[in-house]
Amino acid sequence: MTKRQLIFLGSLLLLTGFLAGLTATWYLGEEKDRQQISKLNKVMKLILSNYVDSVDSRKAVDGAIEGILTNLDPHSVYIPPKELIRVTEDFQGKFEGIGVEFRILQDTVVITNLIPGGPSLKLGIEPGDRILLVEDSTAIGLKNEEVPRRLRGPKGSKVKITVFRPSTRKKLDFVIVRDEINLVSVDAGLMLDSQTGYIKVNRFSATTADEFTSTLSGLKIKGIKRLILDLRGNTGGFLDQAAKMADEFLSGEKLIVSTSGREDRPVETLLAGEKGQFESGDLIILIDRYSASASEIVAGAIQDWDRGIIAGETSFGKGLVQKQYPLDEDNSAIRLTVARYYTPSGRLIQRPYTAGKETYYQEILSRKITQTRVVTKEDLPDSTHPRYTTKGGRVVFGGGGITPDIFISPDSTTGYLGELIRKNILTDFTQHYLDRHRKNLLERFKTPEDFSSRFQLDETIISAFQDYAVRSGFKSVPGGGDQKKRDHYLEALFARQLYGDPGYFLVSTKTDRTVLEAIAAFSTIPDVLAVKPTGKTR
């Protein structure tokens, strides 16, 4: 049976199941709905009685659900049982396991980082250790998705692993008692200079607001006067966590976001109210084309209240709210769009999606920014991007993401550097080099701050990298500024391997074009916020 037949038949199975379970509900209240379901029910009976082949009802129904949801909008999706486990862990901000991060190097599982407070760190497992055995069964050749299934398990259960430690050339056995592991959504909180704080948030999970307030508190102790909040690449998450973050910056009972669903359901609003830690002080939020949903809620609220400025690229443009509904029959779920959300000025920032899902996602890849500049009222003048005004009277745009106040062209990773990254040559080399030099570097540089201020790639390391790249079959030659970019990226990767994500961002922000442009933009905030519209607005 073809996939198309399975989807069609699955649709009938699915809708017939709905029909059997429905009684006097609103769904059967319309005559046209009753007629269409009766029609489908009749066809289903004919297929079950007369179709030539047997049917795998599970595959048919899964395909039908996917087909039905695809016709609604790009963000209503079906989540199969296996994927639901991972999705739930990501959004809950925790899972039960041994507390390691890993990657596959050639055919071997390499531990790249230990999660703070996790059982592996407490036992003395180290970054760079290769996992050879799990419960006396080989771990060589495991695929990425197989590793968590072997290492994770209920809190309190045990798992035995055998590792090879390159620095000592020894095999070591560990019996690890699994525990609850917290997933971090705030990658870094650091001082870029004596007054400028920087916080990087990778998603909005159930713990993000608490992580963020704790990180912000730490920066206030260090004397933060102004803040860069980096939401680039943050695809969203829980709406309430976004509202709590925005509340840290907004005083009084200001509107953060409103949501509107079916006509028979009331508009819901989320307001500021709690006393925030950073209700004054200069604020710049960084976004890019992959910043979506909850990220756009934070950026939109800050922009509409003229509380700070938004810099970077126009964001993704996801103004739809989803609710997840469990399907208990097989522990799967659907995530269904139930409302649209609006920024305080009334903007719906959802991009059009009538051209189809593929076009919808491809569109963001075609965007181009050629220079850093303040956004003017002449930008995005077409009818799909209606103009609104902020509380201070500035022009902002709806209909297609959050348009920043300052466009900043992102660093490119095309050509030589892009190929190095795609082929994992840089990451593999740092792992290879640290197998022999990790202990020495950690003795020389006691803290990530010390590493960031004093470490430099010398000719020995650069030569070792070039030899490694050649041995790996890489023949491209750097051109222009590519060599300098490569070296900066290598330094940041060394910092990540040695000190985790905080070390990485401490080093990478020193050469991150968007961050550097944002620092320079602090002096322009009064001028940007003073710009008033001259055209017609909503």
Kindly describe this structure.
It is a single chain. The protein has 538 residues and is an alpha+beta fold. It folds into 4 domains: 69 residues, no CATH class; 89 residues, PDZ domain (Pdz3 Domain, Roll); 222 residues, 2-enoyl-CoA Hydratase, Chain A, domain 1, CATH 3.90.226.10; 97 residues, no CATH class. Helix 1 packs across helix 2 and helix 15 runs antiparallel to helix 16. The longest helix has 20 residues. The radius of gyration is 26 Å and the shape is globular. The N and C termini lie far apart (54 Å). The N terminus and C terminus are likely disordered.
**What CATH architecture of the largest domain would you give?**
Alpha-Beta Complex
CATH topology of the largest domain: 2-enoyl-CoA Hydratase, Chain A, domain 1
- Structural class call reads alpha+beta
Percentage of residues in DSSP E strands: 15-25%
Going across the major beta sheet, what is the strand order? 10-11-12-15-16-22-19
Radius of gyration: 26 Å
CATH C-level category of the largest domain: Alpha Beta
| Helicity level | 25-40%
**Oligomerization category of the chains in this entry:** single chain
Largest sheet: 7 strands, mixed
- What is the 3D shape? globular
CATH homology superfamily name of the largest domain: 2-enoyl-CoA Hydratase, Chain A, domain 1
Number of strands: 22
Can you give the mean pLDDT?
A: 87
**H/I helix tally:** 18
Distance between the termini: 54 Å
Give the tally of structural domains. Answer: 4
Uncertain spans, ≥5 residues at pLDDT below 50? 1-28, 533-538
